[in-house]
Amino acid sequence: MTFSITRRGLLIGSAAGLGAFGLTGCDDVVQNPNVQSVLDMAETLTMKSQRLLVPKDKLAREYSEADISPTFRPNGTSQPDSEAYAQMMATGFADWRLKIDGLVERPVELSLADLKKLPSRTQITRHDCVEGWSAIGKWTGAQLGPLLQSVGLKPQARYAVFYCADQLELTLDGSGTYYESIDLIDAFHPQTILAYQMNGKDLEVAHGAPLRLRVERQLGYKHAKYLMRIEMKDSFAGLWGGKGGFWEDRGYEWYAGI
Amino acid sequence: MATLDDHSQATPTGPTITVIRRHSLATRITHWINVLCLSLLLMSGLQIFNAHPALYWGQYGADADPSWLSIGAVDGGTRGVLRIGNLQITTTGVLGVSGTGDDATERGFPSWITIPSYQDLATGRRWHLFFAWLFVINGSIYALIGFLSGHFRRDLAPSGEEISPHHLGQEIADHARLRFPKGEKARRYNVLQKLAYLIVIFILLPLMFATGLTMSPAMDAGYPFLLDLFGGRQTARSIHFICAWSIVLFVFVHIAMVILSGLWNNMRSMITGRYVIETERDDR
């Protein structure tokens, strides 16, 4: 058997191997709505299988003090730019109130002092940004589950929607207001807390002062900062892009477990 | 590599041409789905990597932490640099900075290798996770059939004699001289092929799968042993990256071997299953 590598053979062989790379030119395919709806099936599959495989109260790993990251990178907004926020900041958030309303029996408004009296939890956990980096921090805050129980959820309540003080890419219709949502499984998870402390100190502005969400089994963009209001809802209808969050409206998965 | 439809044709002077059924339908279908999945997984994976083009060892790692590999732009965004440990390589135009002059843009891997071509992490993730699912389903079907049909035992498991240092040395020497098995020996994979396929199927691909899951905060909560197995989420991310490029390396060698040892015969056998072996008369 002899080898005769013809020019034609080499060219065709290389073309076969590199054929897939030609797809980069096809951003049309990437943007096609039908293609996207097929790809969306993976998110449903991921969420259903993870919900099946991970017991609903299973805790995210907690680390030791020694594991805490020397620097914890603030991401997204590091300083909300509204006048209202600046005023709250000036008074050390004395006038700040967290409103909890929507599909609840007894809507409330809580001050920071009120929140600090509630059952709390301290946990050293890993924050995984969707971009790929991770940081470990110690968080202290009120557990969301007991708080929601105390205000009494109506039977139709399915999601906790978090409205924030910060804005990104603000447009005329107000889309750009940061918001997030989680379902009741994550809302009632023992490690889901409304954190007012990080690494033993009151939360810094860059990390979401005065209050942020920690929902430890999800990626970083779910951990909404600068919380102003929690509304219990049965759907995302009427909320900006209708996908349940600022980043979700911009193409990211609502279920961010991977 | 069953020989279901052997039919030999002897010509008075030339070699005997035998057509054998080399690859089962299951192997052929799963192979081409793998080609699709691995290509798209690599390209969407590099899109994801570009969102934070640095790799770390351990439980955490972000901008301020020491990375063992990074791709970035220096000198005001004009010079691309790939850094591995203390080694710095200028990669302007390809890594760190795509294009040159006025067209220079800061990006980790260049747009021609990422899905989508522009920077869009959300879309890259959608493609990656969709093809990860397809790839895992396809791989599970292949593995199931491979075990049940005896394909792994019959065609991939090397014999004791084959993995003897003498035989291995001989095979390596033959490959280096581009002397590939012919005649009856071409009916079966040679030992280097077997070992390469076994490493990919039973080491690299399962590692990709397991390190991919270790990057999931939900899976880490459910199965914390994953973090202990790999030594942390950031180590798992690094291993995921290293395995991906190991597979790329395998694919390049694989394609080179396919071309060198008979492009048309190999392609036909992977598409129709039929592979031609030529047997010299005096070989028989």
UniProtKB/TrEMBL annotation, chain A:
Pfam families this protein is in?
Answer: Oxidored_molyb (PF00174)
Sequence ranges assigned to domain Oxidoreductase molybdopterin-binding in this UniProt record: 94-234
- Name listed for the protein in its UniProt record: DMSO/TMAO reductase YedYZ molybdopterin-dependent catalytic subunit
Origin organism is: Rhizobium viscosum
Q: Which CDD domains match?
A: bact_SO_family_Moco (cd02108)
Among Gene3D superfamilies, the record links this protein to: Oxidoreductase, molybdopterin-binding domain
Automatic annotation (TrEMBL), chain B:
- Where are the bilayer-spanning segments? 29-49, 127-148, 195-219, 239-264
Q: Which keywords appear in this protein's UniProt record, sorted alphabetically?
A: Cell membrane, Membrane, Transmembrane, Transmembrane helix
Keyword presence, Cell membrane: yes
Top-level lineage group: Bacteria
* Gene3D superfamilies named among the record's database cross-references: Transmembrane di-heme cytochromes, Chain C
Q: Kindly give the membrane topology term recorded for this protein.
A: Multi-pass membrane protein
SUPFAM superfamilies xrefs: Transmembrane di-heme cytochromes
Q: Where is the Cytochrome b561 bacterial/Ni-hydrogenase domain?
A: 22-273
Compartments, as annotated in UniProt: Cell membrane
Record-given protein name: Thiosulfate reductase cytochrome b subunit
Q: What organism is the protein native to?
A: Rhizobium viscosum (Arthrobacter viscosus)
Q: What is the lineage of its organism?
A: Bacteria, Pseudomonadati, Pseudomonadota, Alphaproteobacteria, Hyphomicrobiales
